[in-house]
TrEMBL record:
This is Protein-glutamate methylesterase/protein-glutamine glutaminase. One of its GO terms (cellular component) is cytoplasm. The modification 4-aspartylphosphate is found at residue 57. Its EC number is 3.1.1.61, 3.5.1.44. It comes from Rhizobium oryziradicis.
């Protein structure tokens, strides 16, 4: 039996600290061992208590959460879950935190929320089990391929916890004329627009939030919007995005399985499916459908995953054709989607 996850709660609001503590302590496998109201208190508490996981408010007095996170990752790496307001400004800060090395993020509850911090305990337990994040030298942006000749395949990617860094790593390898690419990343509603904008600044292709009816085009990457709809790819004669309103699948909306199922049906062998780091099993059965339909499939390996959940289940089901370290996935996608020398696929 695994020991209880020991948590330090850091937030400048006593009310918020109390709410987070109550939610976490209601789970028998989690124990809040301390609270701190600012970075100075948190630093002392980390030294004294040595928690397994820290929950950290992004906006705090004296030293904000991003500055403090950077110090944690540089001096004493440990799993940190960021707690953020569900605003555009909060989304930008959270994305920066995830790039620095935060394990995951949760949104502060809105008025009327039936289950405030409903998934926080599960994220804390996953964080406590995760590989420690060690801050290394700043990553050098990968140079996209310059001699790529695109074929006729569609790329579908699914990711969750750890996916921000993973997607940046993969997509920065893509050239301006990359194959049409659709992505479902588990993320709160207000965050996906900011993430698409950030990817668009960092990558050679055009990256945008998917809109209903958008035609899939070479050189464009479509990110499923967070919220109350799933992303599918439809219309074989002119592949395009469809956003459908329906209940969560595997606890998620948008769901990776919904995307992969649609690509398996639409594109068959003319597709490449990729499953990256993430908790749970979303995407595993959909990737198996893609592989059974003739698609090439890739899974991120355990060593490079923040959480080896979704890729592990996919691998165990036989859905993964190639299991690769994160740094090799971008090149492999391009190899599998390039036009053949004797003519396009």
């Amino acid at each position: 039996m695994m020991a209880r996850a020991r948590v330090l709660v850091v937030d400048d609001s006593a009310t918020m600290r109390g709410l987070i503590t109550a939610v976490l302590n209601s789970d028998p496998d989690v124990s809040v061992i301390g609270q701190a109201g600012d970075a100075m208190e948190a630093r002392a508490a980390i030294k004294q208590l040595n928690p397994d996981v820290v929950t950290l408010d992004i906006e705090m007095p004296n030293m904000n959460g991003l500055e403090f996170l950077e110090k944690i990752m540089r001096l004493r790496p440990m799993p940190v879950i960021m707690v953020s307001t569900m605003t555009h400004r909060g989304a930008e800060a959270t994305l920066a935190a995830l790039e620095i090395g935060a394990f995951d993020c949760v949104g502060k509850p809105m008025p009327g929320d039936a289950r405030p911090f409903g998934d926080l305990a599960e994220k804390v337990k996953a964080a406590a089990r995760s590989q420690r994040r060690v801050a290394g030298p700043a990553a050098i942006a990968a140079k996209p391929a310059t001699d790529f000749r695109v074929g006729r395949k569609i790329v579908a990617i699914g990711s969750s916890t750890g996916g921000v860094e993973a997607l940046i790593s993969v997509l920065q390898k893509f050239p301006q004329n990359c194959p049409p690419t659709v992505i479902t990343q588990h993320m709160p509603p207000t965050f996906t627009k900011s993430f698409a904008e950030r990817l668009n600044r960092l990558c050679a292709p055009i990256v945008q939030e998917a809109t209903d009816g958008a035609r899939l085009e070479i050189g464009r990457i479509y990110l499923a919007p967070g919220g109350d709809r799933h992303l599918q790819v439809v219309t074989p004669s002119a592949p395009s995005c469809r956003l459908i309103e329906s209940g969560p699948v595997n606890g998620h909306r948008p769901s990776v399985d919904v995307l992969f199922d649609s690509v398996a049906e639409l594109a068959g062998r003319n597709a490449v499916g990729v499953i990256l780091t993430g908790m749970g099993r979303d995407g595993a059965s959909g990737l198996l459908k893609m592989r059974s339909a003739g698609a090439r499939t890739i899974g991120q390996n355990e060593k490079t995953c923040v959480v080896y959940g979704m890729p592990r289940v996919a691998h165990e089901l036989g859905a993964v054709e190639h299991q690769l370290p994160l740094g090799s996935i971008g090149e492999e996608i391009l190899k599998l989607t390039a036009a053949r020398k004797e003519g396009s696929e």
